[in-house]
């Protein structure tokens, strides 16, 4: 394994959608830090990151891939009482956002990374032990963009006309066929495979989550091609390529976005949800009052969206750790995607459908609700989702609604014709008057 130990240094086309809309966990401006989980204190300059590193036995290493491209990364490997790495553990990967990279810093494990904080806090619980990998881009913000524009990126997003290093991220989709995977991300993939082999991890249980640019990256990792590495994915305020979602059809996905995100509009996540929904593997939560840092709510250790006495963060970890490339560990069928599309269907607007299509949709809602029963298997649950999705894509203007528009159209045309006639009359009068004035002036000159 080629590692070097380093010193630790400082968007809707199918009618109304009933996305889960929630309020934020923290006041605006609050950011999850290590001290939120009992590491150090808020008053300390490092905000608890040094204690996190010490107690979590976090290592800051460098990995060089087969093409000699190098990346720094943080890693936590649980050990047994003899100090040996515990085998057959899942691997959790956190992909940081733009500007949180850089070779020698702790930003990626200091800000936002609640998955890391909670899992380190619970590292003595056998059910929460995992190898945790946090790769870092070579630069936070690239100071040498003329030499290597993408050294500060996981994905190959470049500014379009009028955009800068920050506004370039606010797009609805991106085309992966026209945007090759970056050298940085290819190195990450090689690193993760190396980690799995070196520490004998459970290759059926690798999980990935990323925020902002890391949300873009999460979509890249699970949908660019059909090489399936991850058993679950959590893209937060990310952007994907909806033409590639079939490659992610078997990957359970939890998506989150802020309702008033000015950095990456939540339409990007809406587009991906609508594209992937039919496979029965995804949910999408919008935090209506959140701006870009909606991860403070998605990763919240205090907010309980499900009202089940368990925080969002612990719910997410429990869901994640139950996933495997071979199915759920407990054999259960996740009904959350079905419940969400039923909610979507109930929020549709009747006038957007023909009478026949609307009646079919209502009937299918009733049928699909029966599949919420825990005894209904995965295949039947997915079919209930697909049947609803197909009907929801039949948005059309009903004949009755179109007929109702006709009188208004005729009246509008009549008014337009009247206005045009009046305009012509006024124009003729104006010409006559001007002609009379011109003649009068000419006679006066004589």
Indicate the topology.
Elements: E1 3-5, E2 20-22, H1 49-55, E3 59-64, E4 70-76, E5 91-95, H2 107-110, H3 114-121, E6 131-136, H4 183-198, E7 206-211, H5 213-223, E8 232-236, E9 253-258, H6 267-276, E10 282-287, H7 295-298, H8 312-321, H9 336-346, H10 355-370, H11 378-392, H12 399-445
Parallel strand pairs: 2-10, 5-6, 5-7, 7-8, 8-9, 9-10
Antiparallel strand pairs: 1-3, 3-4, 4-6
Based on the model shown, name its key terms.
Rossmann fold; 446 residues; single chain; globular; 3 domains; 36% helix
Gist of the model:
With 446 residues, this protein is α/β, with parallel strands linked by helices.
Describe the structure.
- Strands 1-3-4-6-5-7-8-9-10-2 form a 10-stranded mixed beta sheet, sandwiched between helices.
- The protein folds into 3 domains: 3-332, 3-Layer(aba) Sandwich (Rossmann fold), CATH 3.40.50.1820; 341-392; 405-446.
- It has 446 residues and is of the alpha/beta class.
- It has 12 helices and 10 strands.
- Mean pLDDT is 85; it is low at 1-19, 21-29, 428-434 and 436-446.
- It is globular.
């Amino acid at each position: 394994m080629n590692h070097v130990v380093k010193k630790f240094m400082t968007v809707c086309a199918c009618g109304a959608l009933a996305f889960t809309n929630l309020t934020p966990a923290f006041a605006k401006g609050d950011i999850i830090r290590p001290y939120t989980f009992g590491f150090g204190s808020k008053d300390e300059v490092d905000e608890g990151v040094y204690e996190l590193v010490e107690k979590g036995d976090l290592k800051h290493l460098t990995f060089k891939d087969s093409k000699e491209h190098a990346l720094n990364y943080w890693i936590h490997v649980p050990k047994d009482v003899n100090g040996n790495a515990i085998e057959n553990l899942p691997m959790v990967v956190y992909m940081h956002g733009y500007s949180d990279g850089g070779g020698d810093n702790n930003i990626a494990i200091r800000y936002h990374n609640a998955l890391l904080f909670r899992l380190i806090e619970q590292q003595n619980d056998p059910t929460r032990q995992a190898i945790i990998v946090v790769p870092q881009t070579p630069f936070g913000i690239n100071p040498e963009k003329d030499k290597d524009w993408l050294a500060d990126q996981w994905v190959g997003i470049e500014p379009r006309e009028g955009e800068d290093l920050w506004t370039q991220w606010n797009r609805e989709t991106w085309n992966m066929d026209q945007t090759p995977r970056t050298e940085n991300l290819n190195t990450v993939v090689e690193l993760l495979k190396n980690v799995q082999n070196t520490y004998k991890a459970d290759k059926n249980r690798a999980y990935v989550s990323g925020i902002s640019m890391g949300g873009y990256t999460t979509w890249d990792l699970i949908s660019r091609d059909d090489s399936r590495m991850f058993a679950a994915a959590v893209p937060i305020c990310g952007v994907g390529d909806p033409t590639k979602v079939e490659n992610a059809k078997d990957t359970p996905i939890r998506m989150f976005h802020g309702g008033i995100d000015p950095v990456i509009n939540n339409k990007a996540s809406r587009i991906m949800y609508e594209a992937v929904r039919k496979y029965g593997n995804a949910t999408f939560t919008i935090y209506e009052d959140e701006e870009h840092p909606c991860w403070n709510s998605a990763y919240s250790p205090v907010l309980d969206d499900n009202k089940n006495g368990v925080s969002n963060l612990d719910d997410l970890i429990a869901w994640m750790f139950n996933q495997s490339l071979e199915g759920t560990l407990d054999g259960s069928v996740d009904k959350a995607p079905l419940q969400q599309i039923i909610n979507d269907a109930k929020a549709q607007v009747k006038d957007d459908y023909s009478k026949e299509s609307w009646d079919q949709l209502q009937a299918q809602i009733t049928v699909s609700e029966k599949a919420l029963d825990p005894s209904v298997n995965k295949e039947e649950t997915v079919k209930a989702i697909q049947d609803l999705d197909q009907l929801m894509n039949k948005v059309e203007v009903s004949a009755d609604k179109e007929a109702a528009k006709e009188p208004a159209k005729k009246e509008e045309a009549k008014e337009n014709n009247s206005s045009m006639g009046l305009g012509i009359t006024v124009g003729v009068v104006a010409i006559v008057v001007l002609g009379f004035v011109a003649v009068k002036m000419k006679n006066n000159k004589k």
